[in-house]
Design a protein that fits this description.
heterotrimer; A mainly alpha; B mainly alpha; C mainly alpha; B: mainly alpha; Helix Hairpins; 3 helices; elongated
């Protein structure tokens, strides 16, 4: 096994970036190859992590802990558990696929690939960091390349979208920073007694001191963290950056946005908000508010998706709906729901990635994305139609394909929650199942069925490069649909532990008021 | 017939002083201005001596007058040297033209 | 052992699907032989399974095998196979109809540009359907439920270039989804209470009283929602007639014989779940469906539409039968119906094939000499569905009517008597519209000479399945085995305390016999009555159907427009959702995003304001101070003339000034 495997997987893209920066910008193929090789290596390392991951322990694995800034007790502290491992795998896979999908980027390639690799490192870092400060740094590192990638290589309204994305995310970051500081100054390091950024220390309620002992403050901190993460998820009404950013971003960046960035919101909640402030999470006004927002996300996102005429926007709104399912699954605090939710995070990454790639394929050929502008593509592009149908059906939750099982578990978990009564909300949430089927099939019909639009009689079939990006995801869609244990085994122990920790955490309202 | 007293001296001195001041303020020629200064100084000298004669028994006033004469001579020498220099520079001893120090 | 056979029965079509979808085009004959032979192997295997199961001749025969599929903390989700007599019967029905339909399709679909794809989809369907009838748990049945839905979607929309086909496919899937979500919520409810998906375990917990009362009724009705969707029951029946856009063999297999019967199977399989109240709902829904569909079928002119409505009506019968407690009767009708309805559809397919894809009966007529085999088999099936004594349909329909009368006599409720009355009236209607279709198609004079002249009997691959199904239609109803083997389950069977024999069974036997005789007499009377009326109108042409339709134009239009269900749903659910989605889209773009953009605009405005303030006022103040000082400086510098005399004059002036001030102050 590779030593310091997490550092390697995080900083490998940085090395790649440096090499790309050293290359002369005329050597376009070399730049692309270097990027592909480094992200490919990342996938191999991720595979190593998958193979060597111990599925029977709740503790952090592959831990590396080095003092970094001593005077503030900041550590370079990384490690993964069942929650983060799936995200690490997802990030590695989607980064590689996005690089392959970036092959037809045709201006300022050097900058593009360098920024992309930096983004990759930032994302990976977020998922492995266990020091809150380090987490925050990676969180911000990711932001800047994203801004430029949307703002320079995006569509016609790219500046607007990029600035909107940036400001929204920055707002979230500021709130997170506030919460971070409150936590830092009010959590005791059990060893030294000083302040600490260590997330594991923060999770131990015994270390909480100072104003963190006041319930109101805890609620405020939780709310700040919640909004910070909610913007990333995104949760209604903080979602409007998403359609614009997705639509304007180039295809590979949309893949990364939908596939990885959205997951950071829910990941943050599960890694930080829930275990550090379980009592605030369980405070009923917050919890039911959370669930209501989740249901709004599902129903509202699906309805908005149905109203879209732009294919990419439709997929973007569909993401909002599907992330609602993740939130619903998390909220019930059952092991079934939690596993379903995290699995859904992974599955949605796969499926939405596929959908964006698919939109990219026809956009490259037709140079527009109006749903009504297509029609009858099934007879012209049978392979493409087959793959698209697979992704569409996965997205609408067809059994045997990956989304079904995670959505079903999320709903089952929320409905069966013994800690809270979420039955009515879950039932409203299941409306999303019908709505999703509605807009997906309607879209399938409008784009692929009916007589072939004469404009596209010469539309070329998907090419090999596009197949390289689509087929692995398609295989995962089927494999995880039939045998979700491949991932559930990894995360089950950690997630059950998380559920138990949050459930058993004392309620400050009752105990210490 | 009125005896000559202190007041007569003071009036004389005041007249001399005003004449000197008038010369200093109005004359354009630097040499004339210097002469005006001499008049002012001598007005002061008359005052010294007059007060020394009528109000004091010591010779302080006379002594001070001697000092003034000496310093005035020295001052006049310096002043004349400056005037000569100004004249060398500007070919004129007109004070209105010597305003290079104006702000 | 038997389980292994069943596993292979289920998996073989999946394998053939995978091969067919990827390599079908490259195989010889586009691979049609592969799924077809796989289905015949399946038929053989299911015959073996049926032989083994029936040879035990035990009504409580069950074998299960399951494995742990997902283990999450304390929750274990098992997936497994359940084989009992019902499964064995269903396996046989599905593999029989499916293999015959495969064979029939070789002729029917010949020359289609997506020939290989068609067989792939058929295989996918067979796999899903066989899985559906073999699994032992709610989650599994839901999964296969959705999979048959999607294969049905693919096959209805097989000719997707046609707008009507892709619309019908979408409609079928979505209407089914509505029912499925109900079923899903039912599963959520059951799982939340019993913590298991397994049928036997769930029933065991119900027997133990863990799930009871209103909650049990709710769960039952929710699960039944799934059946309402899939078995095209009122009010979700609207998708099935449109589904006839698919190729006719598909209609025979999926939308007549097997998939639509899945709802009936589901209710049968989970029969103990339904409380008395739930059964009332089920019986009511079934009866309403049977009646509505039969009335619509009376006026339809498209041969496949007639059959479609007839299917809905017959499914209504089955559901009603289950609702009145006629468990055996309902499932028996499922089996016989599968035979004769598949036969009717394949017969119709043969006609349509012969008439070059003409489906309108107004263009047909007099075909009996041109298509002798088709005619003969179609006649047998028509007689069976009408309830002519001696054929399979008679026995099963009679059993249903008897069961409903029995229930009515048992409870004495007007509700149940009404159900019986409607069902028996509908039996008459059924005989009428089926013979109407028969006469319009095969008798009388050809109404489209050109197409008639080109008509010819179908090839052997198409007629052999017809004959085979006709044989089963004739013999399918005989023997007591079905009645004795597929016995109504009761809760005691699943109680952990061991089996307690159903004591009520014997007591009702006598009453049942009485009901049976009355029902039989009435059913024969109504059947022949219906046939007679049909002959009067369409065979002897004593009366003109057109005149009647003109006379009762209101009713006729109402029926012709299928009770305006489509229009109703279009105006409410469909338009409502679309309007809502439009409104939400608008809301999102203009209100939420507008809010964001306005916040941005406001921020820009404020920043502009504060920028101006900063420029003008804060910085202005600083500049003013500087400017004032500068002014003073500029003013004061005037004093410094550089003229010594001026300075002295000023000093003098100052001195005088100070002196005057001092004087003034003293």
């Amino acid at each position: 096994m590779i030593p310091n495997i997490l550092s390697v997987i995080v900083f490998l893209p940085v090395v790649g970036m440096l090499i790309v920066l050293l290359l002369p910008k005329e050597k376009k193929t070399a730049i692309k190859m270097v990027s592909a090789v480094f992200t490919g290596l990342q996938v191999i390392i991720a595979w190593q992590i998958y193979v060597n991951f111990d599925t029977n322990t709740t503790s952090m694995q592959f831990v590396e802990q080095v003092k970094w800034i001593e005077s503030f007790n900041i550590w370079y502290f990384v490690g993964i558990d069942g929650l983060s491992v799936s995200m690490v795998l997802l990030t590695a896979l989607l980064s590689f696929i996005a690089i392959v999908a970036s092959w037809n980027i045709d201006r300022a390639e050097k900058a593009y690939f360098a920024l992309f690799l930096l983004l990759d490192a930032g994302m990976m870092g977020v998922f492995v960091a266990l020091d809150f400060f380090l987490f925050y740094i990676f969180w911000e590192v990711m932001l800047l390349p994203m801004y430029f990638l949307i703002g320079i290589w995006g569509g016609p309204r790219r500046e607007y979208a990029a600035i909107k994305f940036f400001l929204y995310t920055l707002l979230g970051s500021v709130l997170m920073l506030l919460a971070l500081l409150v936590l830092y100054f009010n959590v005791k390091d059990p060893v030294t007694g000083g302040h600490t950024f260590n997330m594991l220390h923060m999770m131990d309620q015994a270390n909480h001191a100072g104003i963190l002992k006041q319930f109101n403050i805890r609620l405020l901190v939780y709310a700040a963290l919640f909004i910070g993460f909610a913007i990333k998820v995104p949760i209604f009404p903080f979602h409007t950056w998403l359609p614009d950013a997705h639509v304007e971003a180039p295809t590979p960046i949309s893949v990364i946005l939908a596939g990885v960035l959205l997951k950071m919101g829910t990941y943050g909640m599960l890694r930080i908000s829930f275990p550090i402030l379980p009592d605030a999470m369980k405070w009923e006004p917050f919890l039911y508010g959370f669930v209501i927002l989740a249901v709004i996300n599902i129903v509202y996102g699906s309805l908005c998706a149905m109203a879209q005429t732009d294919l990419k926007k439709l997929v973007a709104y569909s993401s909002i709906g599907h992330m609602g399912v993740v939130l619903l699954g998390m909220a019930g605090l059952t092991s079934l729901g939690m596993n379903g939710a995290v699995l859904q995070m992974f599955n949605h990454g796969i499926v939405s990635g596929m959908l964006f790639l698919l939109v990219g394929v026809i956009y490259d050929r037709a140079h527009h994305r109006e749903i009504s502008g297509f029609g009858g593509l099934a007879s012209q592009m049978p392979i493409y139609t087959g793959i698209a149908s697979l992704a569409f059906f996965a997205n609408l939750g067809l059994p045997g394909l990956n989304n079904f099982i995670s959505e079903a578990f999320s709903f089952l978990g929320a409905f069966g929650s013994e800690a809270f009564n979420l039955k009515v909300y879950t039932i409203i949430g299941t409306l999303g199942i019908i709505l999703t089927a509605g807009y997906m099939l309607w879209t399938l019909q409008r784009v692929f069925f009916g007589p072939l639009n004469p404009k596209y009689v010469n539309m070329p079939e998907v090419n090999t490069r596009e197949l390289i990006t689509l087929v692995p995801l398609g295989i995962l869609v089927i494999v995880l649909g039939v045998y979700p244990n491949l991932l559930l085994n990894l995360m089950e122990v950690s997630l059950n532990n998380l559920v138990q920790t949050v459930l058993n955490a004392p309620s400050f309202l009752l105990g210490m008021q | 017939m009125m005896a000559v007293g202190l007041n007569h001296f003071l009036v004389l001195s005041a007249l001399l002083f005003v004449l000197g001041l008038l010369a200093v303020l109005t004359k354009k020629n630097a040499v004339t201005v210097l002469m005006g200064i001499e008049l002012i100084l001598n007005a002061a000298n008359i005052n010294f001596i007059a007060f020394s004669r009528y109000a004091d028994t010591d010779l302080d006033g006379q002594l001070f007058a001697l000092f003034v004469i000496i310093t005035a001579a020295a001052g006049a020498a310096v002043a004349l040297a400056i005037v000569l220099n100004i004249y060398k520079q500007m070919r004129s001893v007109n004070l209105d033209e010597a305003d290079t120090l104006a702000g | 052992m038997i389980v292994d056979y069943v596993i292979w029965i289920v998996l073989l079509p999946l394998i053939s699907f995978a091969i067919q979808i990827f390599f079908g085009k490259r195989l010889p004959r586009q691979g049609d032989w592969l799924p077809t032979s796989v289905m015949f192997i399946d038929l053989l295997l299911s015959l073996i399974v049926a032989g083994k199961v029936f040879s035990a001749y035990d009504p409580e025969f069950r074998i299960t095998r399951s494995f742990e599929w997902v283990v999450l903390g304390t929750t274990t989700i098992k997936f497994g196979i359940l084989i009992d007599n019902l499964t064995a019967v269903m396996l046989f029905i599905v593999t029989l109809v499916s293999s015959l339909v495969h064979l029939f399709s070789i002729g029917y679909m010949h020359g289609d540009p997506r020939y290989s794809r068609y067989f792939a989809y058929l295989s996918l369907f067979s796999f899903s359907m066989l899985g559906l009838i073999s699994v032992d748990n709610f989650l599994g049945i839901y999964m296969f439920w959705e999979l048959v839905g999607v294969s049905s979607y693919l096959l209805i929309g097989f000719w997707f270039e046609k707008h009507s086909a892709s619309n019908a496919a979408k409609k079928a899937f979505l209407v089914n989804r509505v029912g499925d979500v109900g079923m899903f919520i039912g599963i959520l409810l059951i799982f939340a209470i019993t913590h298991t998906f397994n049928f036997s375990e769930v029933f065991g917990k119900i027997a133990a009283g863990e799930l009871s009362g209103a909650l049990l009724t709710t769960a039952g009705i929710l699960i039944f929602c799934g059946a309402v969707g899939k078995s095209a029951q009122f009010p979700l029946h609207v998708w099935l007639p449109d589904a006839m856009e698919g190729p006719t063999p598909v209609s025979a297999l999926i939308h007549a014989a097997t998939m639509v019967a899945a709802g009936v199977y589901l209710v049968g399989r989970t029969f103990v779940l339904y409380s008395e109240h739930a059964l009332l709902v089920i019986a009511g829904i079934g009866t309403i469906t049977a009646f509505i569909a039969a009335t619509i079928a009376v006026v339809q002119m498209d041969i496949k539409k007639v059959l479609a409505y007839s299917t809905i009506s017959q499914l209504g019968y089955m559901i009603a039968a289950l609702g009145v407690g006629g468990y055996n009767a309902g499932l028996f009708h499922l089996m016989t119906h599968a035979f004769f309805k598949a036969l009717l559809f394949l017969g119709a397919g043969s006609v349509i094939h012969a008439m070059h894809h003409e489906q309108d009966m107004r263009q047909m007529g007099g075909l009996r000499h041109k298509l002798p085999v088709t005619f003969a088999t179609f006649l047998i099936a028509t007689m069976a569905i009408s309830g002519v004594p001696g054929l399979a349909g008679f026995f099963s329909k009679d059993a249903i009517l008897a069961a409903s009368l029995e229930k009515a006599m048992e409870t004495g409720m007007l509700y149940h008597y009404t159900i019986f009355a409607i069902l028996i009236f509908t039996a008459g209607l059924t005989a009428f519209y089926m013979f109407r279709a028969l006469f319009l198609t095969f008798y009388g004079t050809p109404r489209n000479k050109e197409k008639f002249d080109h008509a010819h009997e179908s090839p052997g691959t198409m007629t052999i399945p017809l004959v085979a199904l006709a044989v089963f239609t004739v013999i399918g109803g005989y023997g007591k085995w079905f009645e004795e083997l597929v016995r109504k389950p009761n809760l005691q069977m699943f109680a952990e305390s061991g089996a307690v024999q159903d004591a009520t069974h014997a007591a009702t036997e006598a009453a049942a016999h009485g009901a049976h005789t009355i029902a039989m007499v009435l059913s024969i009377a109504f059947a022949f009555g219906g046939i007679a009326v049909a002959m009067l109108y369409y065979y002897w042409n004593k009366y003109s159907a057109e005149a009647v339709s003109k006379k009762f134009a209101g009713i006729y239009n109402f029926l012709w427009n299928k009770w305006y269900f489509d229009e109703l749903y279009q105006a409410t659910a469909v338009r409502g959702t679309l309007l809502l989605s439009k409104a939400m889209g608008w809301f999102d773009l203009n209100v939420i995003d507008g809010l964001v953009n306005n916040t941005a605009r406001l921020t820009t405005l404020i920043s502009f304001g504060s920028g101006t303030t900063d420029n003008r006022i804060v910085d202005g103040l600083v500049n003013w101070v500087a400017r004032i000082i500068g002014w003073f400086g500029a003013t004061l510098r005037e004093i410094q003339t550089g003229r010594v005399q001026a300075y002295i004059l000023m000093a003098l002036g100052a001195f005088i000034l100070l002196y005057v001030i001092q004087l003034a102050m003293v």
